[in-house]
Amino acid sequence: MLAPWIDPTISQEIAQANDQDPASTDEEEITITGVKEELPQATPTYRVDQTEINKQGANSVAESLRGLPGFAINDVGFGADIHTGTYYRGASINQSVFLLNGRSITTNVNTYHGNIDLNSLPVESIDRIEVSSGSSATLYGSEAFGGVVNILTKPGSQTPKFNGLVQLGAYGQENYRGSYTGSFGDVDYALGYEQFQSASDYPVPRGAANRGPDGDLFNGDSATSSYYGRFAWAIDPRNTLTLDGTKITSRKGLLYFGFPLQRDRLNHDAFNTGLNWRSQLAAGSVLNASVGFNKDYFHTFGPTANVFFRQGRLSSSSLNFRLDHDWQLTRSAQLRWGLDAKTAYLTSETTSNNPTVSQFNEVVETSRFTPALFALGTVQLTPTLRTELGLRQNFSGDFGSSLNPSVGLNWSPTRTIGLRGSWVSVRRLPGLDQQFAYDTVHNWFPNENLQPESGSSWTAGIDFKPSPQWSGQVTYFGSALSDRIAIQATPRNGRTISQWQNIGKVNTHGLELALQYQLSPQWKTFLNYTYTDARIGSGVEKGLQLAQVPFSVGQFGIGYEHQGWQINLYANYFSGARRAIFVNPGESPRDFSPSWLNVDLSARIPITRRLGLLVYLENLGGRTYEKVNRLYQPGTTIRIGLNSEF
Fold first, then answer.
1. Which of 441, 103, 110 lies closest to 256 in space, CA to CA?
2. pTM above 0.85?
3. Up-side HSE of residue 645: CA atoms within 13 Å toward CB?
4. Rounded to an integer, what distance in angstroms lies between the CA atom of residue 438 and that of residue 486?
5. Residues 311-331: pLDDT tens digits?
């Protein structure tokens, strides 16, 4: 059952229990000597590990994150596209920071899908995913209006282990996974492979996007493969050198925001590698130095009204260097400080044989260097009161420097209740593609005069743990965003074009609820709920909810696990989201799609001690419903598979 680990800050006893690294509980795994790098405690931290991902039956990072508080991911699974949005606390995917093993995997691509395609990120290599906010923006990037998502890959093991999965399902679903971990000498390693494909050619009702002549969804297929490797060398008890790399290849059809009949295809390749040196300089002093390279190739192509052909290529890469020193100054004071430096490169190529836009065929090459200094101090003022103070100094040759502070506070008046609050100043630079690259697919024009988005984010909340079996969190969140970047109709040379502009303000307020209860050693249940009010604060759409952002999402689950047997029932609620574009006749861009409730079932039946039968039943209600603007979920579907652990 998908139930995130919650990091409350109620008491030292609870904090110590939560500070234990999940990976370190396996005695067979090689552990790195040093002090655990704590995330800021003035905001909640949500974690999902590989076990919970498997119980849910998630095939992508998007599906893995969907059940966490704060997230509204409105298109996952069958026919999932890259356009309809992932939102965390009302912030778009471009307004959160995504990391792989602590390294940035942001691509500077905004035109087509945002800086990362979560529906193409597989899960086989994942050990756990951590979601944090508040002062995490000081540590990892001031563009984190929403939060910081860190994807941590599997470590090696001292004893060889193999994990495998084969799974088949409705509408052409096939999934094959395999991973192997082991060690030789002082080196431990992890290797993995995953292949997933789906035809997604299920029946959809009239009015649905991409409904073919036979009444089935058209161009919703996808195929993804990935390779992963990690090697860690324990040089001595104080020093460890780690090299890891991931290669992803994705081929899929596109379904633009509910566009009537879209035939465009997408070839998407990604590569990330990094080298990290971790050194325990002294007791309570740990230094991490890392260098990383990220490459993202995005090629979309297809016909326009079956008459003209156009294509866009975006090749984005970045070289990252990070120096991070975590220093326990005294028993009550800790300082984490360092340097981030990133050089981003972008090559954009647009081609069209449509005579009205062929004049804009071009190749653009550009780059940007953005170093930053950061420092986050944590002081335990009293045994029950802790404060965080952070500064991040960002530098940019194009937009000047900015100093972005953060503050956090948590107070535990009793051993069962904790109060917390945070505030952080944030700023996001325009994407290189938004400034310089013409989009021939959507006919969107760049704007070299764009200014950074800026503002602040804040939280306030309560954590409670009245018993070992029962815990929960309530979090109020908010943000104020100025100079929001979006496409706007713009007069140009006597005609109107669609161009990136700083169009105004967005004010967001919301509430997160996360509850967990252990009914017995075998049974547990959880409830997550998020309310998000993300209102446009200026311009012609002033007062409207942001497009594709629902007011309410909720998740409930109950699960049983004993001696290899598992059964999990979970429900997802979605209140509907504003359609905004590509609506059917008689509908308005201000209309909301209908609300829906989905109930799914997953089970694992042990065949032997190390082999199990997996069964996933999705949408038990059997009703086809509209997931988001004109994109539909099929009726009841089934997946069956085998998984093994040796």
1. 441
2. yes
3. 9
4. 14
5. 999 999 999 999 999 999 999
